[in-house]
TrEMBL record:
This is Ketopantoate reductase PanE/ApbA C terminal-domain-containing protein. The keyword Oxidoreductase applies. It comes from Jimgerdemannia flammicorona. Belongs to the ketopantoate reductase family. InterPro entries: 6-PGluconate_DH-like_C_sf (IPR008927), 6PGD_dom2 (IPR013328), Ketopantoate_reductase (IPR050838), KPA_reductase (IPR013752), KPR_N (IPR013332), NAD(P)-bd_dom_sf (IPR036291). One of its GO terms (molecular function) is 2-dehydropantoate 2-reductase activity. The keyword NADP applies. SUPFAM superfamilies: 6-phosphogluconate dehydrogenase C-terminal domain-like, NAD(P)-binding Rossmann-fold domains.
Length: 417
């Protein structure tokens, strides 16, 4: 199969490496000329695990911008020659698009590619936060009959970059869980959860530009029993898309899921209701750990074992539990009463903090290098959903405000230097 990877940060390089080693055709969508220079300098992607580095080449390259005009050209690397095209040069259909950019960059990055994406295409989202696929459906694919299939993933692999296009797979015992968004899910999102529109309309990050990043790691959602990752056990997705679809589009989605399930990344498929639970649990975990560690410049483990850290976690979880119940995102009352109680959410957060005690959150890493953060898709998502359903969220509101103020003050300080 052919996969286009949008976002060549940590997770983008990790997924691209495994897809290429599984003999799939992989096109890296490079953001700018600097990314091209970095790729050439590294002579491909370097994948490292347990101290052993492997050079992975033979990627197709496509420059998402138009910095080199509208003409394909060849560029020599130390060990091979590769062809580079610009996105404006080609109308070739995109079969599978893997989106690993920062959440706030996703929409603007996908828009130029929409003319090459149709019903037979599949978009796989591997990002932090919530609200991206809903906004993409509304802004880019308003006609449910022609939009591509959406697959949302939660990644728990620990990985980081030592340099551009050099990914170190540290927590390689992690997992990837995938769920297919039912087509009527977007109808519900636009009609009964139109708070998503407000979430994006007042989201200043929509106009921001930044770098593709990594997913946070070791989200412990052991209460969920995933579908076995044996591809032979994956039945046709026609029963999970819950809408009339052509045979070709269903077959294409099946093939995409099977390709991911075969990757040696502990990949699992889950029905959408189970996947929604997993995504929301990760949202709450990230909303507790990311902004607090970024503000305090501390590691994840520093939040536990101290009364004040526990209080902050409790406040965020209290608000999240109320918002999730009021929103109707989870309709099963038993699930709400067990997995989305505040005390249960708090235990999840504490467990992750302990499991990743020595790690720095992705938001802290963003803050250190003055990148815009994904707070609008974490705490900001909870805050605006709370406003939609009349649930006060003062702690999440304050965390969003402080993270944004911290960023602006840092940028202002840098400008004076």
């Amino acid at each position: 199969m052919h996969f286009h990877v949008l976002g060549t940060g940590t997770i983008g390089c990790l997924i691209a490496s495994y897809l290429r080693q599984s003999n799939h055709t992989v096109t890296l969508l490079l953001k700018n000329a600097q990314s091209l220079v970095a790729y050439r300098k590294n002579d491909g992607i370097t994948y490292e695990k347990d101290g052993v580095a492997t050079k992975i080449r033979d990627f197709d390259l496509e420059l998402a911008g138009d910095a080199f005009g509208r003409r394909p050209f060849l560029s020599s690397a130390p060990h091979h020659t590769f062809a580079i095209t610009t996105s404006a040069d080609t109308d070739d259909p995109i079969e599978n698009l893997v989106v690993t950019t920062k959440a706030y960059n996703a929409i603007d990055a996908v828009i130029p590619l929409t003319r090459r994406i149709g019903r037979q295409s599949t978009i796989i989202f591997l990002q932090n936060g919530m609200g991206v696929y809903e906004d993409l459906a509304k802004r880019c694919f308003p006609d449910g009959n022609t939009r591509p299939s959406f697959v949302v993933g939660v990644n728990t692999h620990g990985a980081y970059r030592s340099d551009a296009f050099h990914v170190i797979h540290a927590g390689w015992k992690g997992e990837i869980h995938l769920g297919v968004v039912p087509r009527e899910e977007e109808t519900m999102a636009s009609e009964t959860q139109s708070g998503f529109e407000a979430i994006q309309q007042d989201n200043p990050a929509n106009d921001a530009h930044g770098h593709g990043g990594q997913s946070d790691i070791f989200v412990d959602t052991s209460a969920i029993t995933p579908t076995n990752n044996d591809p032979s056990l994956l039945s046709s997705t026609s029963n999970i898309t819950s809408s009339p679809s052509s045979h070709s589009s269903t077959a294409s989605l099946d093939s995409t899921l099977i390709a991911f399930l075969k990757l040696p990344l502990n990949t699992y498929f889950e029905p959408w209701p189970m996947m929604q639970c997993r995504i929301l649990e990760k949202l709450v975990i990230n909303s507790c750990i990311n902004p607090v560690t970024a503000l305090l410049r501390c590691r994840n483990g520093d939040l536990v074992g101290r009364r004040q850290g526990g209080q902050l976690i409790q406040y965020v979880c209290d608000e999240a539990a109320e918002v999730i119940r009021a929103s109707g995102l989870i309709s099963d009352e038993h699930v709400i009463a067990t997995r989305f109680r505040s005390d249960t959410l708090q235990r999840n957060v504490v467990r992750v903090c302990r499991n990743t005690a020595k790690n720095e959150s992705s938001m802290l890493q963003d803050v250190r290098v003055r990148r815009i953060t994904e707070v609008d898709y974490m705490n900001g998502y909870l805050s605006r959903l709370g406003k939609r359903f009349g649930i006060p969220t003062p702690v999440n509101d304050a965390l969003v405000t402080m993270i944004k103020l911290q960023h602006r003050l840092a940028i202002k300080k840098d400008a004076k230097l």
